[in-house]
Amino acid sequence: MTNKYDRQYNFSAGPAVLPVEVLEQARDEMLNYQNSGMSVMEMSHRSKTFDNIIKTAEKDLRELMNIPDNYKVLFLQGGASLQFAMIPINLLKNGVADYIVTGQWAKKAYSEAQKYGKINKIATSEDKTFSYIPDCSNLDISPDADYVYICENNTIYGTKFHTLPNTKGKVLVSDMSSCFLSEPVDVTKYGLIYAGVQKNVGPAGVQIVIIREDLIREDVPSWCPTMLKYKTHADNDSLYNTPPAYGIYICGLVFKWLKNLGGLEKMKEINEKKAKILYDFLDNSKLFKGTVEKNSRSVMNVPFVTGDEELDKKFIEEAKNNGLLQLKGHRTVGGMRASLYNAMPIEGVEALVKFMDKFEKENLK
């Protein structure tokens, strides 16, 4: 492919592709942000300039997602995986929580939470290698459960909750790391939403937590480290300690980019169009096969295989030589995976399908 930056199409699951317009603005502001005389990387997080950056980022995120006033927005560190512990430490009152395990990350969250209480696995799709989302319309929700946990989009296996589970009045907690800001969300249906931003929003190092205020407790266990209390960060507007300042700045630029694009309704429309191009090809291919049940397919992450490991390797290598990068599937499942995050242009998906068609014609036995 040819472009003025000689950029190739990056299908990585994370850290992932960012909008060119955002990268260009970051470049232009790198050495002297808005006449401050310094880079955002260099400025104090206590300065008025950075205070405006983080407050504007939160304001834009609230507008994009229509976040109600009784929810706090926290910009934290530690990666999404830190939430596997923070959630049970902060939310367990009765000491009971229900987990729906639909992939590797939900499995890890379930395992971590067991250190802190009675954690029940109330549904799973492990029986078919996490290739579907189980029916969650009438689950055996624990009467004393403090919350019900899901990983809404499963990056490795390419599945997505298209209907939220019936939690029977219990608080819903969702890991949205790989579908965050890809479509409109009714925040009021959740008690807590969190996302590592490196898949769809910004550079690695920032996690965003959106939490209903009544879930922010003072009476967490006495042994809980100060930095692992949501209240610590909520009371200090995410500035208790030095935050991942540059990452938050980039997230803020992405929020502006999304707003200028037309918001999350428009983003959903674009994402569904991109995914349809690839899924339509897979459904009609004689060589490639998608690995997910159709009604559970993710718009963000599309895993596929040829059925021949050596041919998969050949495809990945030749794709790389044709400017289509990071198509190797997760090490636990093999095959291929194309991540079609917000910043992946439709031209990238078209280029991928064009190459897949050519590869199929050359290698179909």
Task: Give a structural overview.
- This protein is an alpha/beta fold and 365 residues long.
- The protein folds into two domains: 25-260, Type I PLP-dependent aspartate aminotransferase-like (Major domain) (Aspartate Aminotransferase, domain 2, 3-Layer(aba) Sandwich), CATH 3.40.640.10; 264-363, Aspartate Aminotransferase, domain 1, CATH 3.90.1150.
- The protein has nine helices and 14 strands.
- The protein has helices at 20-28, 48-65, 83-91, 104-113, 230-235, 245-261, 263-284, 309-321, 346-363, and strands at 9-10, 71-76, 96-101, 118-124, 148-151, 153-154, 159-160, 172-175, 192-196, 207-212, 289-290, 301-305, 324-325, 336-339.
- It has a seven-stranded mixed β-sheet with strand order 2-10-9-8-5-3-4. Strands 11-12-14 form a three-stranded antiparallel β-sheet. Strands 1-13 form a two-stranded parallel ribbon.
- α1 (20-28) crosses α6 (245-261), α6 (245-261) packs across α7 (263-284) and α7 runs parallel beside α9.
- The radius of gyration is 21 Å and the shape is globular.
- The relative contact order is 0.16.
- The model has no long low-confidence stretch (mean pLDDT 96).
Span from first to last CA? Answer: 29 Å
What portion of residues is helical? 25-40%
* Tally of separate domains: 2
Mean pLDDT: 96
Q: Would you count the extended β strands for me? A: 14
Order of helices and strands: EHHEHEHEEEEEEEHHHEEHEEH
Please describe the topology of this protein.
Layout: E1 9-10, H1 20-28, H2 48-65, E2 71-76, H3 83-91, E3 96-101, H4 104-113, E4 118-124, E5 148-151, E6 153-154, E7 159-160, E8 172-175, E9 192-196, E10 207-212, H5 230-235, H6 245-261, H7 263-284, E11 289-290, E12 301-305, H8 309-321, E13 324-325, E14 336-339, H9 346-363
Parallel strand pairs: 1-13, 3-4, 3-5, 5-8, 8-9
Antiparallel strand pairs: 2-10, 6-7, 9-10, 11-12, 12-14
Helix pairs in contact: 1-6, 2-6, 3-4, 6-7, 7-9
